[in-house]
Amino acid sequence: MTSTQPTNIAIQAPTVDVSGKVVYKSGPWGSRYPARKATADIIVTDTTGATSFEGSGETDDNGKFRAKSSFIAFAFSQITLQIHEDFTGQDFDLTLYPGLIGPNQGPQDVGEIVFPFEPEHSELAWVNSSAFKDTQNFAKALIRILKSNDKRVAIDLLSEWRGTEQMPVEQLADDRFPRVTSVNGHVFKKPVPKGTQEERLRAKKEDERFIRERLKTFRPIPLLTPAQKLMKMLSMSGFAKDFPERVAKSLSLHGIASAKAGNATDMAISSLERFSLATMTELESGQLLRRAVTFLQKAGNERFHFDTVTEEAAADASAVCALIFLAGFMGKNNAEPKISFNYWHEFSLGAGVTETRPYVKISISAGK
Asked: Tens digit of pLDDT for each residue in 44-79?
């Protein structure tokens, strides 16, 4: 007679592996704007009511995260995913178990989580120090200036980084040397480098040395929206003297401006009125923005392929409105705009404390 010995079976403690995407509540910043500076913490509550932190993950540039727990005790009654906005400190709790997931079921996607707060910095633009959170009122403010006798304006556009890209090596040198846009009243289709041929050859050798040194410390720059990219290209090459008239003609021919005739300022006002009525749904569809950027490219003699990004519709529309406004303002006041791009912005946390964050800040000034 043989006896059977009991077999010891190792039972693995439960774990949680969860992923998803965090977006802010719908508003003038967008209907599904990603929370890029958030942390997703896994909180476990045991049968006595005590809680413990068991794992976390951070959201990326698209608001996506993955959080994995360590082995957790068997005697648990609830598992919570706590979304924490790093800058404002706001929290939102989502019950995972019981309900959405079960432990030890491998990677599980909980889908899109709506964080019921505004983005940490929801301002899109400032006009002469007045802040605007939506493109409609921003466009109306620009219309008021064009209808007034104001000879000077200062505009700031602000948008969060949505990713980075490497700057083309050639552009490192291009940034150093200004371009000539016209000579004796003749406007060049393509701006040319300043100086004689000999000076340009000498500059090319300096460029090579400059690029080698610059690449040692070069950091990626943020991705720009199509209209922001166009604005940077125009600011680098210089706005042509006939830019206002070209913009007016293009916007009128292609139906962005409702007015059929008029000067550059009239066309700008009419086009901005169109954007003052555009809803976020219309902007996010991409059709209006794609048309506007395409026709502004043509007017500015610049060409590049682009795709509209739903999450960045508000920032892109703000830059479109600013370009249309500049055409009208230049035509009315013969003012040459000055534009600067800064990829880091200092925010006040109160009590004299500040923090520098990765934001695209475009500063525009025109007039005297």
From this structure: 998 888 888 989 999 998 999 999 988 877 678 889
94: left (phi over 0), alpha (psi -120 to 50) or beta: beta
Give me the pLDDT at residue 11, please. Answer: 46
DSSP code per residue over 170-194 = HHHHHTTS-EEEEETTEEEEEEEES
3-state DSSP assignment of residue 342: strand
What span, in angstroms and rounded, lies between the C-alpha atoms of 43 and 52? 6
Q: Is the four-CA dihedral 226, 232, 237, 243 of positive or negative sign?
A: positive
User: In the chain, where are the structural domains located?
Assistant: 17-115, 125-166+220-367, 171-182+191-219
Which residues are registered as beta bridge partners of 65? 20
CA distances from 152 to 18, 234, 250, 262, 299 (A): 53, 20, 26, 23, 24
Paired with 66 in beta bridges are 19
Pairing of strands 107-115, 64-68: unpaired
SS3 track for 237-251: HCCCCCHHHHHHHHH
Q: What's the CATH fold of domain 17-115?
A: Immunoglobulin-like (2.60.40)
Q: Do residues 130 and 141 lie in contact, with contact meaning Cβ atoms separated by under 8 Å?
A: yes
Least confidently predicted of 16-20, 199-203, 334-338: 199-203
Could you give the angle at the alpha carbon of 49 between the alpha carbons of 47 and 55, nearest 5°?
90
Separation CA 268–CA 142 (nearest Å): 10
- Closest by CA to 367, choosing from 127, 151, 154, is 151
Please say if the pLDDT value at position 194 is more than 80: no
Strands 107-115 and 17-24, by their bridges, are: parallel
Pairing of strands 353-357, 345-350: antiparallel
pLDDT digits (tens, 9 = 90+) for 129-178: 899 999 999 999 999 999 999 999 999 999 988 877 655 555 544 555 55
Give the position of tokens 């993950």: 57
Q: What share of the chain is helix, strand, coil (3-state, %, to 5)?
A: 30, 30, 35
β-pairing verdict for 76-85 and 130-132: unpaired
